[in-house]
Specification:
The protein has two domains: about 10-125 and about 255-270, NAD(P)-binding Rossmann-like Domain (Rossmann fold); about 130-245, Dihydrodipicolinate Reductase, domain 2 (2-Layer Sandwich), CATH 3.30.360.10. It has eight helices and ten strands. The protein has helices spanning about 20-25, 80-90, 110-115, 130-140, 165-170, 185-190, 195-205, 255-265, and strands at about 10-15, 35-40, 75, 95-100, 120-125, 145-155, 175-180, 210-220, 225-230, 235-245. The strands form two sheets. It has a five-stranded parallel sheet, with helices on both faces. The longest helix is centred in the first third of the chain and has 13 residues, at about 80-90. The structure holds nicotinamide-adenine-dinucleotide.
């Protein structure tokens, strides 16, 4: 960090598979130019790690209106409802927000509130890549369509709305099967945790109607695989990302907290960056 530069004060919402390692890295001073100002989790004021105190200190509900005195950047790692509610209030207070629960943007109303400022909304690249190419194609006017196909271990795709027969089918699946194909919003309604990547692709495309999302279940798949196929007039672009699941949450890729930390470094003013 340049001499005299004040570190970015970061508040983390959620201390799960993503929020916890992010908070720990910030608390340990591993992110140059940024420091941990607090961690807020609805599980309340339990002191869960040395050096990472709950925030607010008394474990009370977080009043976003008081954040301007505490934070320059809020990192949302707590779920779609938190992004829609607390996240929207953070942005409305004029504080910048780095969000991982990008699937919440599938709802047009949430999209409109979250992008309404005055705080800036940063969407984490999270579990996937290739977004910079999709953005450049969108910029050029050459982008025609994008399909993102996500394959996950079948048991991680069991949903509360499924009846017992469907749950049992997923638990005892013998071969890979396509579960759903549709718009990012369709996937968000059925498989919210699989909608983040579709929403990220749609945000990169700048046009939600160009994106088709596919969710596949594979009984033998230990990793999560995302295949992105881009149709454009400017070449051929396809990406495959195979991610090892987080040891703390099999529905989340272990890569995601590192994508968040990389983004915080960039926001904090890294001297050289890829944008
Ligand atoms: N963008 C991506 O590529 C990507 C990838 C994986 C996960 N995600 C999303 O990131 C989010 C977090 O994932 P995770 O694996 O860390 O989840 P997790 O379940 O491991 O942790 C979430 C934490 O948030 C806390 N929480 C829940 N409601 C809260 C509230 N109202 N206020 C404060 N804290 C609250 C929970 O107590 C929990 O500790 C999820 O929405 C997930 O879908 C995004």
């Amino acid at each position: 960090m340049s001499p005299g530069r004040v570190p970015l004060r970061v508040v983390v919402l959620g201390r799960g598979a993503i929020g916890r390692p992010v908070a720990l890295a910030l608390a340990a001073g591993h992110v140059e130019g940024a420091r941990l100002a607090g961690v807020f989790d609805s599980r309340g004021g339990v002191r869960y790690e040395q050096g990472v105190p709950p925030f607010p200190a008394d474990g009370a509900p977080l009043p976003p209106e008081s954040l301007p005195e505490t934070a320059d950047l809020v990192v949302e790692a707590a779920g779609h409802p938190v992004l829609e509610d607390l996240g929207a209030r953070v942005v409305a207070c004029g504080i910048d927000l780095l969000a991982v629960s990008v699937g919440a943007l599938c709802a047009p109303a949430a999209r409109s509130v979250l992008t309404g400022g005055p705080g800036r909304l940063y969407l984490s690249t999270g579990a996937i890549g290739g977004l910079e190419v999709i953005r450049a194609l969108a910029e050029s006017g050459a982008l025609r369509r994008v399909r993102i196909e996500t394959t996950k271990r079948a048991t991680t795709l069991v949903q509360p709305w499924m009846d017992e027969a469907e749950r049992e089918r997923l638990r005892t699946l013998a071969a890979p099967v396509e579960l759903l194909r549709g718009s990012p919003a369709t996937v968000a309604r059925a498989f919210p945790r699989s909608a983040n990547v579709a929403a990220s692709v749609a945000s990169a495309a700048g046009n939600w109607d160009l994106v088709e999302a596919v969710v596949r279940a594979d009984p033998a798949c230990a990793d999560t695989v995302h295949r992105i196929e881009v149709g454009s007039d400017a070449g051929e672009h396809s990406f495959q990302i195979r991610n090892v699941p987080s040891p703390d949450n099999p529905a989340t890729s272990a890569l995601v907290p590192h994508a968040v930390l990389r983004a915080i470094r960039d926001i904090a003013g890294r001297a050289v960056t890829l944008i």
